[in-house]
Records
---
Amino acid sequence: MRPATIADANQYWERYYSGEFIFGLGTEHILAVLQQIPPARTWADLGAGSESLLWSIPLDAGHLFAVDLDPHRLALLRDYAAARRPRGAYQTALKLCGRNADDFAQRCDRLAATIIADCLAGYPTPLRAGCADLVTQFGLLGLATSHAQFLTSWKACHEPLAAGGWAAGANWNATAKHGRIQLSQQLYTAACAETGMTPLLVTRVPITADPDFDSVWIYLGRKT
């Protein structure tokens, strides 16, 4: 059984992304890392929740396939894409990345599909192996309850990644663990080694703006 998320779909959206951008959560650091990724034709965001369009801002990615277990979070994502208008935190993210509202609307149009699936279960995702130039996950693998589950789920999540493709993401260390694993650089290094991936960045950023989390681990890698 996986640990519960900090909040349900609507509460999470309202707390972190509907209002003003909250500095000190690590979000600004994640956006900066994503800007290092070259253009990708196909992007799979696993455990996407409602926030794929936030992470799309620094990226130059074509078709986006958002996969999540929670249909309510995917509904929020589809509704936001249909509106094509950034608000709150998204407006600040656009400024940080040197983008504008037209750029955001283009990214909304690239949402190709939302797919309901459990990306933490450790079995292959509904996406075809090798179909994606970019695979991301933000917060998903931090819900693993053991190192073994993290490694198994990491492998399954990166099956869609094509040779030469990029992988990036972030996972938050909860202050109250609720059964979550303690993330470490060694864990990410082992995960990359098991999946033929070269880690280009693995870094821990302290969190100062949220008592529910003490830090976030951000990574960037490429499949060799």
---
Amino acid sequence: MPDPLVLPRSPRRRGAVARSDTWWGRAFVRSFEELALDVGDLVAARSLARSGRFGAIVVLEAMASAVVDPGSEQPLMSQLKVERLDAADWTTFAREAARESGFTAALEVGTLPVDLVEHADEAGVEVLPGTPDLDSACECDAWAQPCVHALALLYLLAWHVDRDPYVLLLLRGRTREALLGEVHALAAAEADDTGAAEREAARVRAAQVLALAADAPTGHGLADATVAAYDEAVTRLL
């Protein structure tokens, strides 16, 4: 298992954790806001997320946790679990990313192209978690989940997801290194296959030219219909 990703606290300023600037950040926020039992819980959760009461967030593959009021007499741990994509799903996603150099370049600089996600979705892989993919737990005495603490943790995660989509991909079960490694391997394999196909096509053409040369007609230049037909056949192969 890779080392956990430890995320620092987000800035304590109004709106810092309630607004997303990227399409994937907004999509992540929509996915968990639909879980709230009451709009008032979302308001309270945003306020708690901005309060600075959370410690660092620890993110592992398909899960995250943080402590509310660490160091106090009554700290609370809040946890999030996310449905993990399996290896076959990640291979499908990586294959879609490897098809276009622009997708690979975007992933390398830390952005998530919407077209890539849509292509993966068409291939049967939903990278963005939906409401059923999210589950939470908390040490508080709330009778239902997600509680305000869990929602606040989700808002904090959304702040980090907005700035680094690899936080989101890690929550789905894949590290940056593992994903990019598979994308590069698939791109290299596809390039090798393309090169091999081109070399084989060239070999076949060369063999056909040699076969034609062996049976080259003798005549009197282009005025001779047989020679002209031969020249045309060779030209098509070259």
